[in-house]
User: Which sequence fits this backbone?
């Protein structure tokens, strides 16, 4: 009897220590993250979802867009919806706009906004969506308050219909433009439109797009460098509760190369870059004898190779790159992660991710 009592006391002691540790935040690394994945209409993207539906928490397909008059166009993929229903995957489609002038017109028209919101509620109810995600990019910083107002009105309408609203935001630390022409441009046209505090008060989830740090507009570099990611996450957490924040983790990479020097009949410098998937990056490294290397500072995989006597660069997301950012989201107690885009991923990530329960 004494032995049984002693064992029970030891069990209680251990359990108490676990509880104390969790209260101190030591259990955060074990947080189960909600896995949100974006899906396009490309066959590779659809196939990836169909193959891994049990590991997708929320599917965000790129099915809808809106014009200046509030006309919402798009429709669901019936096969994707069938598999989502069979595997109990929540679907929250994107409605997008990437046209600065048209979106500015939408923000200035209460009639157009009402038309858009009514369509979103109708489509969500008709197709069984959990809600909608806004993906409004290339928005002028001068439209910041108007965007926040549209988000609030949309959230109120969707919530009244028992639906959710999320928004994808371009990371905007440090919250003001820098000194270079590029820094001013990217703030004025991309980063400055998102009032994270106001948006967080309206929506159910903010997907922080911590990717595209380096693109075809920049010199070669990581898609999401480590310190850049950490800085933007810490900045967002000043305004957004962690339970409302999803960390963007890219699944793709970029391939920089020397482009055609003759553009529209004119000779000009033309260093450019294209999206590249992890499988295609691995194939390119094999074909041209590139040596993938781990960057311990930026926590990312990269390599270079020569073609036609010119050096080409590839920065991309392998499973190690993905895992470090996944753990970062866990350590901060976030709601989850959001990854662009299915069909470009390292197959190894599916061994890392648990199935939904």
Assistant:
């Amino acid at each position: 009897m004494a032995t049984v009592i002693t064992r029970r006391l030891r069990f209680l002691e251990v359990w108490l220590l676990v509880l104390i540790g969790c209260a101190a935040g030591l259990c955060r690394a074990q947080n189960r993250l909600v896995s949100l994945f974006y899906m396009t209409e490309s066959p590779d993207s659809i196939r990836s979802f169909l193959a891994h539906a049990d590991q997708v928490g929320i599917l965000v397909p790129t099915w809808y867009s809106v014009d200046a008059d509030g006309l919402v166009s798009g429709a669901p993929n019936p096969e994707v919806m069938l598999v989502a229903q069979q595997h109990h995957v929540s679907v929250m489609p994107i409605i997008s706009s990437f046209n600065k002038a048209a979106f500015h017109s939408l923000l200035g028209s209460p009639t157009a906004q009402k038309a858009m919101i009514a369509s979103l509620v109708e489509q969500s109810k008709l197709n069984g969506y959990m809600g909608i995600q806004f993906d409004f990019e290339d928005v002028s910083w001068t439209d910041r308050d108007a965007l926040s107002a549209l988000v609030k009105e949309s959230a109120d309408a969707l919530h009244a219909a028992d639906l959710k609203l999320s928004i994808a935001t371009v990371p905007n630390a440090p919250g003001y433009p820098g000194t270079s022409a590029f820094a001013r441009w990217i703030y004025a046209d991309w980063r400055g439109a998102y009032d994270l505090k106001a948006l967080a008060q309206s929506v159910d989830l903010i997907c922080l797009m911590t990717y595209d740090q380096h693109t075809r507009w920049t010199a070669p570099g990581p898609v999401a460098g480590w310190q850049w990611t950490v800085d933007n996450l810490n900045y967002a957490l000043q305004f957004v509760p962690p339970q409302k924040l999803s960390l963007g983790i890219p699944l793709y990479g970029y391939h920089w190369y020397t482009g055609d020097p003759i553009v529209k009949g004119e000779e000009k410098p033309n260093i450019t870059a294209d999206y590249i998937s992890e499988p295609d990056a691995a194939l390119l490294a094999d074909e041209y004898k590139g040596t993938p290397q781990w960057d311990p500072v930026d926590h990312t995989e990269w390599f270079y190779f020569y073609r036609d006597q010119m050096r080409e660069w590839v920065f991309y997301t392998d499973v190690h790159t993905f895992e470090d950012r996944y753990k970062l989201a866990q350590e901060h107690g976030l709601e989850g992660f959001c990854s662009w885009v299915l069909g470009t991923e390292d197959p190894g990530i599916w061994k890392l991710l648990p199935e939904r329960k």
